[in-house]
Amino acid sequence: MRKPLITPTLAIVLMLLYVSQSFAETLSIKEVANGIFVHQGIHELPDPNNKDEIANIGFIVGDSCVAVIDSGGSPEQGEALKNTITATTKTPICFVINTHVHPDHIYGNIAFKQPNVKFLGHKRLRASMSARAPYYIEAAKRDIGLMLTPDNFVPPDIAVETTKELDLGGRTLVIQAHPTAHTDNDLSIYDTKTKTIWLSDLLFMGHIPVVDGSLNGWIDEIQKLRSIDALLAIPGHGPVSANWPLCLLGEEAYLRVLQTEIRAAIKSKQTIEKAIQTVGLSAREEWKLFDQLHKKNITTSFAELEWED
Amino acid sequence: MSVSINFRLLSLIWLILPILQNQAVAESEDETAWNKSLKKQFFSDRTIEEDSQTINISAPYRAEDPALVPIQITSLFPQTKDHYIKSITVVIDNNPVPFAAAFLFTPDAGRADIATRMRFNAYTYIRAIAETNDGKLHMAKAFVKASGGCSAPIGTDIDAAMSRIGKMKIKLEADKVQLNQPNPIQLLISHPNITGLQMDQISRMVKPAHYMDEIRITFNDKLIMSGKTDIAISSDPNFRTFFVPEKSGDLKVEIKDNLGARYTFSQSITP
Q: Is A291 part of any domain?
């Protein structure tokens, strides 16, 4: 056996150094509108290097309360977000809003779990967390090198059925629970004070949209979203903020290409194998991670659209 | 500052190293389970040839969705009374239930081809073992990188699948069938096919298994294909196979699930 480069004792010392350093770690943030802070994610698949810290996450500051919007892709990122909030404002954190079940939006939850912090989610979020936890725990270990337990999935204390108003002091957030679109548990947050709509993964920009709910449902939902009286939108993946409602165009075009071409494939009795190879290739240049995620979108959507008629 | 960054890098590498090593092991195309136990369990000491004259299996090397992996098994000769494939058994080595399905074919199928969609719970071989009418066994295999398909959430449309449970569709490739030759058909069956492995980690409850376990296809009451299926079949089971009509008639599909519910569907076929 070769002599290890780093002895176990030295490794522990190094790890302690690493851990002690991470305590003060903060995230880069941008104030996109008065009191609305967003950390920009990156267009990558989850891996051990990025630790699934890939989504846009952030917080909204009122006179009496801060609401965290998505806690991040790892417990460490959750801690870093918390440090960022304390470094930005003296206002206490009262709420954590999970926009949906995906790991890059909820794995920071544990960092915020305290008696005086209430977690909010879609009425179907709890069930979705329950169903996915064992699968997600395994995937986190395999793909990210993150050891999780069921405690990392902090289910919502407050389940949003349709809409809910949240008073942060001097500003009211309107939280809306959507029908199945990106997932079956999507929430959006509208800030009445600045007319900002935080769409999270109902809006993808640059990063290819991921269909994990219903293709048809998502397209329908985009039509309804369009009428929201907003000035600014915050996507779950993409820039920290974008022009409303123009920012919906790219995502909608991609989803419609999927819908049109899969319908045509089904109508002409093509197999799913063939559709996976041929549908939607014209959109390839427009999206990051197209090669990694587009085929999965076709697979999921094909199985949905087969039962349309 | 630069020194501390280097320290952090080193400790990161130290932390990541075991993960990389694990991945290397997981990705090797291991056949231990088959050689040590599965082969004996399903076929005792019978000889299984890995020839390339009987069947092919095609599966994506890297699956896009572990809960819905398209699999195609293709026979390499037509079914005739003298030379035909009697059965095809499908085994997924590293799934929690390795037995995926077994299909019985008659010469009336025309071709002993079957395509379906399956769940994969680990990086694993999938193998199809065909028994020809002379009693010999022939195997084709493919390696698939996918994981978590059996414990994966059943998709968000479980309510939709439950509300239309037992609904079926038969799709023919062409509007009319060709008499006296193999015609491809596609069967769409709505069934949630719950594996019984999807644990609710918060309530510690497992959603009980509820899956299709038998399928039977007949044409004018003559058996074309029958099969036993297990939890590896994806939600809303989908099968593509062949039949040979000698005149117009009724193509009938009957399925049964593990709770004993039976569903049938038939469609009249005209040339």
A: no
